[in-house]
Design brief:
This protein has 99 residues and is mostly beta strands. It has no helices and ten strands. It has a three-stranded antiparallel β-sheet with strand order 3-4-5, with no helix packed on it. Strands 8-9-10 form a three-stranded antiparallel β-sheet, with no helix packed on it. A two-stranded antiparallel sheet has the order 1-2. Strand 4 and strand 5 form a beta hairpin. The structure holds zinc ion (ZN) (2 copies).
């Protein structure tokens, strides 16, 4: 059985036939979703970053390819993604920027 190390807890996670791009939850880490990835023929697990909405506290996955400075919408509002202290956060976009 193929097992990969969880980046969150360092424990082995059985893949159970999962392929690259598929998601898996680590049974040791609460609220941690992992994605199977492959680089140079080596499989590894990467954490799917999540961010909570400042309006409704809903936890969403940060879509692949999205990074700081990108916009995410929730509750009919748009937010800017920021990355600070090793975690993503959402900031309300101020429509009227005052200088
Ligand atoms: Zn884990
Ligand atoms: Zn929301």
């Amino acid at each position: 059985m193929v097992e990969l190390l969880c980046p969150g807890c360092g424990e082995r996670v059985p893949l159970n036939g999962l392929r690259v791009g598929e998601k898996i939850d680590c049974s040791n880490c609460a609220n941690l979703t992992l994605r199977v990835n492959e680089k140079d023929g080596i499989y590894f697990l990467e954490e799917i970053p999540r961010v909570s909405c400042p309006s409704c506290d809903r936890l969403m996955e940060v879509p692949e390819g999205l990074g700081p400075g990108h916009n995410l919408a929730c509750c009919g509002e748009e937010f800017t993604l920021t990355y600070e202290f090793g975690a993503y956060a959402l900031q309300r976009i101020r429509r009227n920027i005052q200088k």
